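#dry-run=false #mode=assembly
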Amino acid sequence: MTDQTRATSGVRAFAGVAVGDELPPRTIHVDRARLVQYAGASLDRNRIHWDERFAKSVGLPDVIAHGMFTMGSAVTVVSDWVGDAGRVLEYGVRFTRPVVVPYEEGADIEVGGVVKALDKDKRRATIELSATSSGDKVLGKAIAVVQLD
Amino acid sequence: MPVNADFEGRSYPSTKPYGVSAAKIREFAEAVGSSDPVHVDRDVARARGYADVIAPPTFAVLIAQQCDRQLILDPEAGIDYSRVVHGEQKFVHHRPLTAGDSIVGTLHVDGVREAGGHAMVTTRTELATESGEPVCTATSTIVIRGGE
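#status=ok
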């Protein structure tokens, strides 16, 4: 079966995209092991992201995820929709609430996206992302600009 | 204010080059759950027109935060790192960070302001190759919480 929304490159075609289109949502599960993995990969080893005793000593409810983990994992909704991670030209967020990650069950981050604007001349789309955890909005003003084919 | 306001407008010298490796790209992509093969398969990357495997969109933070440390650790700036919270982050990619790149970062302090007893510092790190090709502009706002 051929997907008519994709050009031969595998990148989504501009012609098949409309303002208001919703990107397939995703639930991202995060636990302590994942935060240690991200700490090593990103070189951000702040103890509030893996050491519960330390996190609580500085007034946090528990270990919290790196804001940059949330930002980096949320954008996979966009890069998978576009078909090439290299087509994400701009990406910005505001960190509104921390993602609290309890030892036992970890946390879920619910991520969605919607096409907010299109630039016909440049074949670019502006995507607004939403991200919530335990009912809290964890990213605000989460906007990505992507280059379509 | 828990930061020296005189730092607005200040720039730092370019950092020593950071070598972007395929191994670090893979490690970062796995950590954020980015399953696009363009991060790990050179043939896929080349078929899409890239010189080698490319980094996920937020990988640049790894280099930018090393640059930010110049400000955070600058005793004159007066920042207590234990009170720092990440407020905002933005990347504008001029092209994807690619394995084999040797990247230098130049840190600029674009804004220092106070809001509700906290200080907010906006930094901009220009990432470029050693030969001067612009790769990414990373803008970050950190919040330094005021005293209780």
